[in-house]
Amino acid sequence: MRIETHCRITGVDNPSYLLASHCKPWRDSSNEERLNGENGLPLTPSIDLLFDRGFIGFEDSGNLIISPVAHKPSLQRMGLETKGTTNVGTFTDGQRQFLEFHRNAILLRVAR
After folding, report:
1. Based on CB atoms within 10 Å of each CB, which residue in 32, 83, 93, 102 is the most buried?
2. Residues 6+ away with beta carbon under 8 Å from 47
3. How big is the CA angle at 37 (ends 36 and 40), to the nearest 5 degrees?
4. Residue 77 lies in domain
């Protein structure tokens, strides 16, 4: 919460409604990476689920990436814009490194 104060997608800033979501999952991280604040994003539960399961990710520029396997009608019901470009703002250098891992190892590119 020292680096991020709200969910980048929903704008929710009440910590009671946010989960600490790791860009590089706990299982794949060193102890240092697990505790690195730049490896985390505060997300609302539904956004956390989409991020953790690889249905969404973020480009370094802050553009939201929607996986081609994501069910767009469900995303729309969760409040995500699926047409056009959604930009959530810039990330720090450290965040960009962890988000690169997420894009390469977690984000779903094709159906499994």
Report:
1. 102
2. 7, 9, 10, 21, 56, 78
3. 105
4. 15-105
